[in-house]
Amino acid sequence: MAKDKKLVEAITSMEVDFAQWYTDVVKKAELIDYSSVKGCMVIKPAGYAIWENIQKELDRRFKETGVENVYMPMFIPESLLQKEKDHVEGFAPEVAWVTHGGLNPLQERMCIRPTSETLFCDFYANDIQSYRDLPKCYNQWCSVVRWEKETRPFLRSREFLWQEGHTAHATAEEAEERTLQMLRLYADFCEEVLAMPVIRGRKTEKEKFAGAEATYTIEALMHDGKALQSGTSHNFGDGFAKAFGIQYTDKDNKLQYVHQTSWGMTTRLIGAIIMVHGDDSGLVLPPEIAPVQVMVIPIQQHKDGILNKACEVKELLAQAGIRVKMDDSEKSPGWKFSEQEMRGIPIRVELGPKDMEAGKCVLVRRDTREKTECPLEEAAAAAVELLKTIQKDMFERAKKHQESHVTEVKSYDEFKDAVEHKPGFIRAMWCGDVECENKIKEDTTATSRCMPLEAQKAVSDVCVCCGKPAHKLVYWGKAY
Amino acid sequence: MAKDKKLVEAITSMEVDFAQWYTDVVKKAELIDYSSVKGCMVIKPAGYAIWENIQKELDRRFKETGVENVYMPMFIPESLLQKEKDHVEGFAPEVAWVTHGGLNPLQERMCIRPTSETLFCDFYANDIQSYRDLPKCYNQWCSVVRWEKETRPFLRSREFLWQEGHTAHATAEEAEERTLQMLRLYADFCEEVLAMPVIRGRKTEKEKFAGAEATYTIEALMHDGKALQSGTSHNFGDGFAKAFGIQYTDKDNKLQYVHQTSWGMTTRLIGAIIMVHGDDSGLVLPPEIAPVQVMVIPIQQHKDGILNKACEVKELLAQAGIRVKMDDSEKSPGWKFSEQEMRGIPIRVELGPKDMEAGKCVLVRRDTREKTECPLEEAAAAAVELLKTIQKDMFERAKKHQESHVTEVKSYDEFKDAVEHKPGFIRAMWCGDVECENKIKEDTTATSRCMPLEAQKAVSDVCVCCGKPAHKLVYWGKAY
Questions:
Q1: Are residues A263 and A300 in the same domain?
Q2: Running along chain B, 480 residues long, what does each successive block of 10 average in pLDDT?
Q3: Which of A243, A277, A311 is the last residue of a domain?
Q4: Based on the domain organization, do A107 and A184 belong to the same domain?
């Protein structure tokens, strides 16, 4: 059975080679496959189903805040991309260019959207006229293209799936409030649904989005101690509005520029789930996002009544609202366990002849491997409870990991030592000068991840790099 | 109030100029806007919400048949596109070419997918090894690009949204069964959800999909008597499998080629909804697909208690599972009625001071404008019933329109006269020779729409064009 083999043969241990472990998991859990298109991946059913659940829940939360979905063209004419100076400088080096349509060269070449600020601005310039047209809170689900040189499944690929929200407001205050509202929504989503704790913060000038006045970010910590930027929310002020002429007449009949925001999350989140929760047996999915929450596995299924009873249990679980499947294939129970573990399914229910006789089954947690016996008639209620417990425990465990991987440093030597020997975030003061930021990156490869939003006690009163007075507390780290 | 004006000013009558009526409706009902990207449109919230409902219901029906969603790259390297001869001939003249990535020319240019058979085949060639891997029933929701010269919103644009299903099977029989299963699914969806009757049929050799062995289609009739191809399902036999080397070992350990299908539906369906159901007041949406099913409109809303009571009614309807909104803007009731009609919202509930006194409200159907008075406490139940009635009546009306626009002809003179003077489908016999098909198209602009799947009595025993013996009954017509 070549296919079973492929799935369950041992993967590289994460302690031995974390990068190889990651690659093994995405392949063996059948999340993706490589394609003939360099730098692009095929997202397979097991991977796409996770994305569908992310979409469904994020979309629901967006709409609760008044966001409406739209769809913009995938092409950006070169002249449109060039309208906002910082933005074009940021993106032009990494876009794909369409030069021919059918058999003819285009009069003006177009890039495939790397992000759609310019298209939304072009649209808003016509669509917004009066204060009565505001605010506009639009979002789209689509794919975007950035011509990366080095790619890794989910984390960095030439094409990826995302949502991009683009809003326009009458006042600067309202735009700032929306920017932060969406950052909070992202953070809550990561913590409540993906069981992934995040640091909420603001990017430095150097790290902010091309064309933004302020970029806010949520940063998560992967198992190997590297940071992953998991969602960003940008306040553009009226910069794009001025470049694109997006004006409205206010209540006093005066022309005003709108204030804009944008915010996005991507399939990168699937990479984050893998690297926060996974282990040496493969993927571990938080119940809230798992496409299959429980796998029922009959033992000695050829024996009389076993399959029927397993099917009954499956139905009871389904009726309790659980996403449940049964593996009644011809493979051995051992294979099935390994597959269920590799795929990260939160619970498996084992049911064999002895269990049946005793009127019970065994619930096995994927995250801790803990086993619980349970009367058959209580299986559904027990599984519902256990899924909640797993969700909570996974968050707590990830939170503990994150908190135990923050190193506070006061001197540059301590900083360099921490980058070298203490995986995780480094908390250190910074004077605000980009030269220090550049020097730190050059010396250590660590970058400024964010300045935390919540008030935190200063580590010292001088810059960890240059020693000048410093008031900014920064989380630093190596990052994906 | 410039914006109200824009929305409700009179649109062109469909009797005067159907094409202009269509354009007016898509713009005034705020379904789309034109963009700076030639041939591409912006799908606005009211339009995209219809697409979301189409997606949700189609996706549910797909999954019930065992289909799983995936995502393939949007790029096709030129060499991959060229692997199947008929396919590349069909699509190469109308694709957009990417020639540069970032600042560098690509070693091999790539087109943006016009459809993804080649990508799925390339994937299946690696992914399918054994009979145990079959069938594969994959689908993706994405956008595709075809470099059309003349474009119209929803009906023909350079980029459009769709779903494309791609399946691989062990046997020819299973592939044929899947092809027809999906055609039936499409037809049922159109009739049950979009209230749009369709003719199920098979395309002629000339009209079939590039690379297919057989193409099945559903054809709907628009209000102006032109046909619209609304969904297609293709059986590829083993043609693509041979071109791409997609083989599996069967139970006897012999290498076999797989048999494949593909099937798709697009945002074109929104154009069909408009042209089947719309009238001179704008859009008319079938309740099943309408993003807002009921609009509650308070009359003299400044008067004591009216807004509260209207809000109560809205809540009662929402609790009954109806998608309901209330228009409590400062516009006059007349404006609000016109807007609700333009947007095609199936029912409006009017509630004024006299109604409130009498403890009742008025339900007004969008499709017939019929008014019913109804005690407030019965409003929700009445609306639920009325939505069902509207859905049924809209289908019956469209069905009657379609049936009354079929002309049976025996001679070529009758054929030409029918094309000229009798809008709708023409039923006529055909010998099977592509030259007759070409001549008919050249002489009359009518094309063969399909050979109906359900057995129908022959119109005569000779070809309507050349007079030779003929056994094939064909629906002909002008088409979008």
A1: no
A2: 52 96 97 94 98 98 98 96 88 93 94 97 97 97 95 96 98 98 98 98 95 96 98 97 97 98 98 98 98 97 95 97 96 95 98 96 98 96 98 98 97 97 97 97 97 92 96 97
A3: A277
A4: yes
Same domain, B133 and B222: yes
B197 and B308 assigned to the same domain: no
The verdict on B113 and B205 lying in the same domain is yes
If 0-12 CB within 10 Å is exposed, 13-18 middle and 19+ buried, where does residue B291 land?
Answer: buried
Question: Does residue A286 form part of some domain?
Answer: no
Contacts of B77 in chain A (CB under 8 A): 36-37
Structure-token pair, residue B300: 């003299």
Q: Which residue, among A346, A462, A477, has the nearest Cα to A424 in the 3D structure?
A: A477
* Amino acid A1: pLDDT: 39
Query: Is the confidence metric ipTM above 0.90 for this complex?
Result: yes
Unique residue bearing structure tokens 């705020």 = B30
Asked whether B155 and B271 are in contact (CB, 8 A), the reply is yes
Question: Which ranges of A138-267 does DSSP label H, i.e. alpha helix?
Answer: 172-192, 239-244
> The domain containing residue B349 runs over which residues?
294-386
Judged by CB atoms closer than 8 Å, whether chains meet at B96 and A98 is answered as yes
Regarding whether A232 and A357 lie in a shared domain, the answer is no
- Nearest CB to A2: which of B93, B94, B130? B130
Is B464's Cβ below 8 Å from some Cβ in A?
no
B125 touches chain A (CB under 8 A): no
Last residue of a domain, one of A330, A355, A386: A386
Residues, chain B: 480
Is the same domain home to B102 and B235?
yes
| Residue B9: predicted pLDDT | 64
Residue in B27, B36, B140 to test binding to A, most A beta-carbons within 10 Å:
B36
